[in-house]
Amino acid sequence: MGTKFNRSVLIKLLLLQCLSVLSEAQDSDFFYFVQQVTDTSMSEAQDFDFFYFVQQWPGSYCDTSQSCCYPTTGKPPSDFGIHGLWPNYKNGSYPSYCDPDNPYDESEISDLISSMQENWASLSCPSNNGSTFWSHEWEKHGTCSESVLDQHGYFQAALKLKSKVDLLQILQSAGINPDGRNYTVSVIASAIRDGIGYTPWIACNVDVAGNRQLYEVYVCVDTSGSSLIECPVFPQGDGKCTSSVEFPAF
Ligand SMILES: *[C@@H]1O[C@H](CO)[C@@H](O)[C@H](O)[C@H]1NC(C)=O
Ligand SMILES: *[C@@H]1O[C@H](CO)[C@@H](O)[C@H](O)[C@H]1NC(C)=O
Ligand SMILES: *[C@@H]1O[C@H](CO)[C@@H](O)[C@H](O)[C@H]1NC(C)=O
User: Fold this and answer.
1) Which among 85, 99, 199, 231 has most CB atoms closer than 10 A?
2) What SS3 class is residue 52?
3) Is 94 in the pocket of ligand 1 (CB under 6 A)?
4) What is the pLDDT of residue 236?
5) Homologous superfamily of domain range 44-246
C-alpha cells in the first residue's frame, strides 16, 4: 500500500466510523456516501483504470528483419509468451516509470524465475538471461500499479493470467495453427473471444518477406490484476493487421 494510504485517508476512515455510529446502517444514502468517499481514497492510491495483458507470438518476433536472440537459457517453448501487464487509463493514455525508488529486485521473485523463463521469455538481442526484459517491464509498467501489486504480486499476476488465457490452445482448438498459413483476423479474434469470454485486440507485424502476421494479443484485466474484463478502450491505431494474416511456425 505504501505512503499514499496516508493520514487524510485515516481521517476519512475515522470520520466514517463516527458517521456509522450516528447513522442507521440500512440507510442507502449512507452507503452511497461511504462508496463515494472510499472511491476517492482508492483512486488516489491506485492511479490507473485497468491493465492490458499482452502476449506475443515468438515466431512473429523472430522472423522480422530485426530478428531475435534466444535467451541464454535456450529456445523458448513454441507458445505465446508474456510481453507485459500494463496499467492503462480509460482515456487511452498510460502512466510509466512511476517509482524510481522501487527498482527491479530479482531476490523478491526468485521462486518465479523458472516459470518466467518458460512463460515470459526474452527474445531481444543481445542474448541475455531475461533480467533485462523483466526489469524493463517492472520499472516502466509495474511501478505504476505498485499500490495494488508489489513486485512479487505483479509478476505472479501475469503468470496466472497466462495460464488463464491459453491462446495457443484456444486457437488450435479452433483449427488455427502456427503453420505459416493465412488466417482471417476476425476469425482469430472470434475464436479468442469464444475461448475467454471477452473481446481481444490483435496487433500484427511484418516478416522479412513483407507479409502481415499475427504478433500480439491484448486482453483487459481489472485493477486487481486477476479478473478479465471487457476493454474500456482499445489501443490507439488499427493494430497494423490486414484482413488475413500469417501465423508463422516457431
Ligand atoms: C488521462 O487520464 C489520466 C488520469 O486521469 C490523466 O493523468 C492524463 O492526463 C489523461 N491523459 C489525457 C491524454 O487525457
Ligand atoms: C541474470 O544476469 C544478471 C547479470 O547480467 C544477474 O545479475 C542476474 O542475477 C541473472 N538472473 C538470472 C535469473 O539468472
Ligand atoms: C498470405 O497472404 C499474403 C497476402 O495475400 C500472400 O502474399 C501470402 O503468400 C499468403 N501466404 C500463404 C502462406 O499463403
Assistant:
1) 85
2) strand
3) no
4) 87
5) Ribonuclease T2-like (3.90.730.10)
Report the pLDDT value the prediction gives residue 120, as an integer from 0 to 100.
Answer: 98
The pTM (predicted TM-score) of the whole model is 0.84
- The domain locations on the chain are 1-42, 44-246
State which residues of the chain have pLDDT below 70: 1-46
Enter the C-alpha cell of residue 34: 461511504
Q: Which atom of ligand 2 is nearest to the CA of 113?
A: 13
pLDDT in tens, 153-178: 999 999 999 999 999 999 999 999 99
**Cis omega (within 30 of 0) on the bond before 100?**
no
For residue 210, the ligand 3 atom closest to its alpha carbon is 7
The backbone torsions φ and ψ at residue 229, rounded to the nearest 5 degrees and listed phi first, read -135, 165
